[in-house]
Design a protein that fits this description.
Radius of gyration: 20 Å
Structural class: alpha/beta
Number of helices: 4
Strand content: 25-35%
Number of domains: 2
Largest sheet: 11 strands, mixed
Number of strands: 28
Shape: elongated
CATH class of the largest domain: Mainly Beta
Oligomer: single chain
Distance between the termini: 53 Å
CATH architecture of the largest domain: 3 Solenoid
């Protein structure tokens, strides 16, 4: 089907608009924007810069995507935003293109549910199947793993990481890395065990959850030095994929791990 573009929308003739795209009233689309099929823009959406948006996305009113980063070193260098498929982007969201201090791309995966007023800053790497609740804010270079959940009014410090299947409670401040599969909350986030409910909802078996519980106990409750705890997890527990992901995440931490 041909795209439907409201007469009041301003779409640069150089922009690539695929078939079956719907662009609502008063939207503004820049020349380097690419929008794949079956994506819908409600009213007053602004998309600029070198921005690619996948298929089946729905973007609500007053959202801005691809505008320059809030980075004092940025001098209009050519950087990007790449957004995957089937993302729900609610009203008043802001997604900035990358700075020159990373790989040049702000990236969002597939099947994400991002609620009103969420902010995704420059150079962020958001995985797939995440939920970011109202007013969740990710500063520059933040990484969010697949299936992670971030509560409303939560802020993540620049360069911090939130691991896959982790859940961060509302009104929290993420100042250090949140390991995969865990539950964290607080004005300086602390860990409160595994994200058991989330893991069960995503089909984790009782056996895998049991192994992850043992790993959590060794890493965060046995009062071992981190390097010794990691060795114990590697040598004493079955090396299922989830344990390997957890160990790799812990070893790669630069900001430190929330405790």
């Amino acid at each position: 089907m041909p795209s439907i573009i409201h007469p009041s929308a301003i779409v640069d003739p150089k922009a690539f608009i695929d078939e079956d795209v719907e662009i609502g009233p008063f939207c503004i689309i820049g020349k380097d924007v690419k929008i794949a099929h079956k994506t819908k823009l409600h009213s007053n959406v602004i998309i600029d810069g070198d921005t690619t948006i996948g298929s089946g996305c729905e973007i609500f009113q007053f959202t801005t995507i691809g505008l320059p980063p809030q980075c004092v070193q940025y001098r209009n260098e050519p950087t990007k935003v790449i957004i995957g498929n089937n993302n729900l982007i609610r009203e008043y969201m802001s997604i900035h293109r990358a700075s020159v201090n990373g790989d040049g791309t702000t990236t969002i995966g597939d099947n994400n549910y991002m609620m009103a007023y969420v902010h995704i800053a420059h150079d962020c790497k958001i995985g797939s199947n995440t939920i970011l609740s109202n007013v969740a804010s990710c500063a520059g270079h933040v990484q969010v793993g697949d299936f992670a959940v971030i509560g409303g009014l939560t802020a993540a410090h620049q360069f911090s990481r939130i691991g896959a299947y982790a859940m961060v409670g509302a009104c929290s401040y993420v100042n250090q890395d949140i390991p995969p599969y865990t539950l964290a909350s607080g004005t300086r986030t602390k860990l409160y065990g595994l994200n058991i409910v989330g893991l069960k909802r995503q089909g984790f078996s009782a056996e895998k959850i049991s192994i992850l519980k043992k790993a959590y106990r060794i890493l965060f409750m046995d009062e071992l030095k981190l390097k010794d705890a990691l060795i114990k997890v590697e040598t004493e527990l079955p090396q299922i994929d989830e344990i390997k992901i957890l160990i790799e995440f812990m070893k790669a931490s630069k900001r430190g791990i929330s405790q």
